[in-house]
Amino acid sequence: MTVFVIRRFLQSIAVLAVTAIIVFIGVYAIGDPAEMLIAPDASAAERAQVVASLGLDKPLWEQFGTFIWNALHGDLGRSFVFNRPSITLILERLPATLELTLFGLCLALIIGIPLGLISGLNPNTATDEVIMTGSILGFSLPSFWQGMMLIMIFSVWLGWLPSTGRGQVGELLGIHSSLFTLDGLKHLILPAINLSLFKVSLVIRLTRTGVRETMPLDFVKFARAKGLSENRIVFVHVFKNILIPLITVIGLELGSMLAFAVVTETIFAWPGIGKLLIDSIMRLDRPVVVAYLLVIVSLFIFINFVVDVLYSLVDPRVRIGEAS
Amino acid sequence: MTPVLDVRNLSTQFMTRRGVLKAVDDVSFTVGQREIVGLVGESGSGKSITGFSILGLVDPPGRVVSGQILFNGQDLLKMPPAAMRTIRGKRIAMIFQDPMMTLNPVLSVGTQMIETVQAHDRVSHTEARQRSRDALGLVGIPSPEERLDSYPHQFSGGMRQRVAIAIALLHRPDLIIADEPTTALDVTIQSQILFEIKRLATEFGMALIWISHDLGVVAALADRVMVMYAGRIVEAGQVDGVLTEPRHPYTSGLLSAIPAAVPRGEPLRPIPGFAPSPLSRPSGCAFRDRCVRATEICSTEPALEIAAGREFRCFHPHVERAA
Ligand SMILES: Nc1ncnc2c1ncn2[C@@H]1O[C@H](COP(=O)(O)OP(=O)(O)O)[C@@H](O)[C@H]1O
Ligand code: SF4
Ligand SMILES: [Mg+2]
């Protein structure tokens, strides 16, 4: 296990380094932030002064060197727009995005797993048909359209839930989150549903397929022959086997949810890093874009690591195979 | 003495898209207390489905369509599901063919044994674990205490089958149905397992239905043998009698195909042809297009004849040698 952790850690460093290079080149090759920041009527001298103060007059390799050196000291540059450290901007807004993503993921699991189980255990019944049709809708309707429909129905027509912004943030055991106030929850529900709808469909299908593939296996029949209750068979014998593909896919999808939060945050004006990213791209605020990408990559790496550990906890063939 | 199991006119069918498949067709037999009965037949003849029918484990689209399965006098087919669950694994246990597939790969052997104890007896985890450990010891698994914490993939095929046998023994059932438990194993391990099961069945006074496609294995083990062909029992009787003096042409065909039963120097003669597709069996005797003795009358149903403890279904049986 220790060897595994160290190996994964070194891999992660390498991935981060490569990402840093790609991101830097990609971002710095596009556009000229000076155009955006400097008033069109500014004099040439003023112009040169701003460019110099931002370090934009130096050669690209030197900018990169400075960038890496500073990055190693936790400094990913100052936002041109806010004139504050870009990493601070990202970290300030990260909790809002994580809250949205994790809550969305929980919704996807809480709704998707039971529906998938019901579908898989009653294949080709009316219930199954209804659930599967619903999941096709979840898959095929575009996320932004779903979001607008949610706002239409629940905010505009019914007036039940607010459609923009993050609500009041409460504190519990030192954790700050919208989950702890009613106002916060109300604001969170619509964006979280929007973000999770696609994943609900995915979880339903994964669970259903898992059930359908596992139920006919010999060990399920053997479990019946032992006289176990149907509950024990479904929730222990079958479910533990389904968890393996579920964890793998959910881990991968958590990353894509973080990425898709960009769309949801834009629709619902959710003050997370996704919205910040879009705003920063519009304003060519390079340091923020770079900081965003590096933080997201770090999160991806961390999630993958957690998935691997969970995976080995659930599947003894992985866990014990490594040891011997 | 009443038999442990009395199966009467059991028919199990699969409602497939291509028609009704008669997997088990009007099968009747009994298993006496402490008796070891062999159920023999080619692959697809309906042996496993017979076993699953007894335990109420036929999966859709299959269904037991008629008959009675009297277990200690009680009809299992009339039993509500909850009551049936208290029989499965407790009074009747089953061992499956492929030990690589019968244990759940993600649960430890201990978990899979302890849950079996606790499914039927309200005992503490500690006691259930003790009983599981003892059962593992009984079937010859070394250091059973540690092995309880192992997972199936850490056992060889033979050892996994021993675990399955240990699970079957946990409640000392009245009847064990062993569905080709050695077919998937190496020959040397086959005979060990065979010997082990016979020893344990005798020791605990359990009745045993031993399913096999191999008459030789059954000869070594069983008191009585039933020969199954195309969903029906075509011949049944004491092992010695059936093997030395088969009455049904299919039985004699099986015998001349196994090395141990053929006199030295004579060639092995496998039965020509293949078992008919279960969806399109010939009318009358299903064996007739492979049978050398077949005549016109064989296209009608041969009745069950019972003579001197022997049962068979054939119009032209081999004659009994004069006693
Ligand atoms: N799930 C199923 N669906 C359709 N037919 C089946 C199914 N299971 C078994 N059968 C059919 O039932 C017949 C008897 O099968 P089985 O009892 O497994 O034979 P065996 O004697 O080899 O154990 C076979 O013809 C098989 O094709
Ligand atoms: S009934 Fe006819 S076809 Fe069938 S086994 Fe006897 S002789 Fe052969
Ligand atoms: Mg079989």
Write up what this structure looks like:
The complex is a heterodimer of chains A (324) and B (323). Chain A contains 13 helices and two strands, in the order H-H-H-H-H-H-H-E-E-H-H-H-H-H-H. Chain A has helices spanning 2-28, 33-37, 44-54, 60-72, 86-121, 126-140, 143-157, 182-214, 218-225, 230-267, 273-282, 286-314, 316-323, and strands at 170-172, 175-177. In chain A, strands 1-2 form a two-stranded antiparallel ribbon. In chain A, helix 5 runs antiparallel to helix 6 (126-140). The longest helix of chain A has 38 residues, at 230-267. Chain A starts with a helix and ends with a helix. The model of chain A has no long low-confidence stretch (mean pLDDT 82). With 323 residues, chain B is an alpha/beta fold. In chain B, 31% of the residues lie in helices and 24% in strands. Chain B has eleven helices and twelve strands. Chain B has helices spanning 47-55, 81-87, 99-102, 109-120, 125-138, 144-147, 157-169, 187-204, 215-221, 239-244, 249-255, and strands spanning 5-16, 19-31, 36-40, 62-71, 74-75, 92-95, 175-179, 207-212, 224-229, 232-238, 304-307, 310-313. The longest helix of chain B is centred in the middle third of the chain and has 18 residues, at 187-204. The two termini of chain B are 29 Å apart. Chain A binds chain B through residues 216-219, 221-229, 232, 236-237, 240-241, 244, 314-317, 320, and chain B through 52, 55, 57, 59, 85-90, 93-94, 96, 98, 101-108, 115-116, 119-120, 151, 153-154, 164, 167. The structure holds adenosine-5'-diphosphate, iron/sulfur cluster and magnesium ion (MG). The site of magnesium ion has 4 residues of chain B, from helix 1.
